[in-house]
Design a protein that fits this description.
Structural class: alpha/beta
Distance between the termini: 58 Å
Strand content: 15-25%
Bound molecules: fe (ii) ion
Radius of gyration: 19 Å
Length: 313
């Protein structure tokens, strides 16, 4: 079975005040400069998406396609449901995926559902974005059989949810039950798909009894293959990793780079050939970017994320 994986497409709305791209940096710029930089990034992300999807269409046929999250940049860091254009971009991506493969799955990411982090607006997952993504892609945790190997997709934002919203706590619980029941229902080997590579540590109780059958973990989120390389190298020299569920998953980890040219040059995705023995083939379909955006620099992106907020006058 051939499975196309794409991740971190970050399709971006046209409003330069959307807070979907480095809000701390953009807010510090005069309006004209802010609009020009935002549009340069937005159109670069759009071009990378179009060219990568074209590359996937040309390298078919695919039996299934999986989006590993951050389909759009969301809006106001509250996910994709809070702005009409962000909703439309999500629906557009689903239609494009349907043209590539007959089966479409999504492991939605933090930008799709809402999030908070050190440089953010302290937003969080919203039920509106969860429900919109469910309407668009179906259940946000799922499984299917790939010829004798079980593929399980999970929602990272449910796995590490720490809030108190009853709807979201219910989803997080349902996901845990789903994972435990699905893994207990078969003796087949399995592959874990998720947006974040760290999700397994929040699901240790459900995953640990079935770790010996785990063939591969596939995730996105980090964007840049260099970051994944550092983690892959570190796991080889950490003997304490032997008994830890997260490090066990990372030892069997395949990283899907971002399509969006954010944190690095982007323009990539992943193709998998899966059979009962595991992931038999792994191909990166790279398309060279026309030019590097300012966001191709990891150091610059880090600074733009954490730089002090501009003083309010
Ligand atoms: Fe992302």
């Amino acid at each position: 079975m051939r499975i196309a994986c794409i991740s971190d497409t970050h399709l971006t709305v046209t409003d330069p005040n959307s807070k979907s791209l480095f809000p701390r940096h953009l807010d510090s710029l005069p309006e004209e400069k802010r609009s020009a930089l935002y549009e340069e990034l937005r159109s670069g992300i759009e071009l990378a998406y179009i060219r990568t999807m074209e590359s996937l269409r040309n390298s078919g046929p695919w039996d299934a396609i999986i989006h590993l999250g951050d389909i759009t940049g969301g809006y106001g860091e509250s996910g994709c449901a809070h702005h009409e254009e962000a909703r439309k971009l999500t629906l557009r991506c689903r239609s494009d995926m349907q043209r590539i493969a007959p089966r479409v799955f999504a492991c939605v990411g933090n930008h799709d559902l809402g999030y908070g982090h050190i440089g953010s607006l302290e937003a969080d997952v919203t039920t509106a974005s969860v429900e919109f993504c469910e309407q668009t892609f179906g259940p946000l945790f799922w499984s299917f059989d790939a010829g004798g190997i079980l593929c399980i997709g999970i929602c990272s934002s449910f796995a590490d949810y720490k809030g108190k919203d009853p709807t979201l706590l219910k989803r997080a619980h349902e996901q845990k039950v789903f994972i435990a029941d699905t893994l207990a229902s078969t003796k087949d080997p399995w592959i874990l798909f998720s947006h974040s590579p760290w999700s397994a540590k929040f699901l240790a109780r459900e995953i640990t009894p079935h770790l010996t059958r785990l063939k591969q973990m596939i995730s996105g989120d980090l964007h840049d293959p260099k970051k994944a390389w550092v983690i892959k190298s570190a796991r080889r020299v950490l003997p304490i990793a032997q008994s830890n569920v997260l490090f066990h998953c990372l030892r069997n980890w395949t990283f899907c780079p971002s399509t969006a040219p954010l944190w690095w040059q982007g323009y990539q995705c992943l193709g998998l050939s899966v059979n009962a023995f595991g992931v038999a083939e792994e191909v990166i379909h790279g398309v060279l970017p026309m030019k590097n955006l300012p966001t191709a620099s990891f150091m610059r992106c880090t600074w733009w994320c954490v730089k002090p907020k501009p003083k309010q006058s």
